[in-house]
Design brief:
Elements (H helix, E strand, L loop, with lengths): L2 E5 L13 H21 L18 H13 L3 H21 L13 H19 L6 E2 L10 H9 L5 E4 L2 E4 L2 E4 L2 E4 L4 E6 L7 E3 L5 E6 L2 E6 L1 H18 L6 E6 L4 E3 L7 E4 L4 H9 L7 H11 L7 E2 L9 H4 L1
Parallel strand pairs: 1-3, 7-11, 8-12, 11-13
Antiparallel strand pairs: 2-14, 3-6, 4-5, 6-7, 8-9, 9-10
Helix pairs in contact: 1-3, 1-4, 2-3
Length: 324
């Protein structure tokens, strides 16, 4: 499952430490899956299955003052205590993963169990991409029903960093980009064309494209405008940070046909005729995460706009967004 690093302008746990959370996410995800699978294979009834691991509470003083102490770092004994607290917190995270799968009925097969697990893990991915220990963002319920987000998050490899329509703050102005996926080998800028099934999209060098559905034709703004803007912004960010990392542009449609041969040298076009093969290749990238990949992802995160509220105001409606 890909790492959902940034979703719109929501506060993200990855903003705190991009090099720590990817490996922690992978480790904890595997731990919970093996635990659940072992119980299922032993014949345990997993209906309404809940974890029975006690969480380790972080001391209130650490929650309030550890950021300041990290900044000034004047006392070695305090730093040592912080290191110990961090290890305790990480161990607690590794044990309970921060979420408790709740299976309302017992899975009939291992594949069924896997699907149920991935479904609940998807909700947890969104939680990690919209909250931290001290802050949280209000999640639009449409993201829980977004089939493309779900497909990317559940089916792409763990070593992919997913930015789903991130909002960056550029020259004090918020700018929403299209989808960005930072893989170990490249930064993918993706614009999606998805309207009615089997619609045909055709364009040229003009600002407007044509959508054909049966006998009906409709003009719409060229999707290459948004795609080129996303690529240009990411390129300027990498250049400013002296990050040498390939950037490629993709125009994709899972359910339609795209005809724009003039852009083949610059944009890779993926439509319903080639989407499954293209996606299958993405799923099989064996390359581990790279330091340049982290630098590229962090450079984008550093410019991300964040809109959130403090958890100090209470955990009101914690699950409301998922129930809407």
């Amino acid at each position: 499952m890909a790492q959902l690093v940034k979703l719109l302008d929501y506060v993200s746990r990855y903003e705190q430490d991009l090099t720590r959370y990817p490996s922690q996410y992978i480790r904890l995800k595997r731990y919970q899956w093996e635990r659940m699978k072992t119980q299922w294979e032993s014949g345990a009834d997993l209906s309404e299955w809940q974890q029975e691991i006690k969480e380790v509470e972080e001391p209130q003083e650490s929650k309030w003052f550890s950021p300041l102490l990290r900044v000034f770092g004047q006392r070695k004994d305090v730093e040592a205590e912080q290191d110990h607290d961090n290890r305790v917190d990480e161990k607690s995270d590794e044990e309970n993963f921060g979420f408790s799968p709740n299976l309302i009925h017992n899975p009939s097969s291992l594949e069924h169990l896997r699907r149920l697990y991935l479904e609940q893990l998807f909700h947890f991915q969104i939680k990690w991409a919209s909250s931290t220990l001290m802050d949280k963002s209000r999640v639009d319920s449409r993201f829980f029903r977004d089939s493309l987000l779900r497909s990317f998050a559940q089916n792409l490899p763990d070593n992919y960093l997913l930015f789903y329509y991130p909002i960056l703050l550029l020259k004090k102005a918020p700018v929403e980009l299209d989808i960005i996926i930072v893989t170990p080998v490249e930064c993918m800028c993706i614009t999606v064309l998805e309207k009615e099934d089997v619609a045909a999209f055709s364009g040229s060098g003009d600002r407007f494209w044509l959508k054909k559905l049966g006998k009906k034709e409709t003009k719409f703004l060229s999707p290459l405008i948004a795609l080129n803007r996303t690529e240009k912004i990411i390129s300027s960010i990498f250049k400013a940070q002296e990050i040498d990392f390939p950037i490629r542009k993709y125009l994709i449609s899972r359910n339609g046909y795209i005809d724009h041969p003039g852009s083949a040298f610059d944009v890779e076009i993926i439509d319903r005729r080639s989407y499954d093969d293209w996606f299958s290749v993405l799923q099989k990238l064996p390359v581990p995460m790279k330091s340049t990949q982290f630098k590229a992802g962090q450079a984008i995160l550093d410019l991300g706009q964040t809109t959130s509220i403090s958890r100090l105001f209470g955990e009101d409606e914690e699950q409301q967004s998922e129930e809407d």
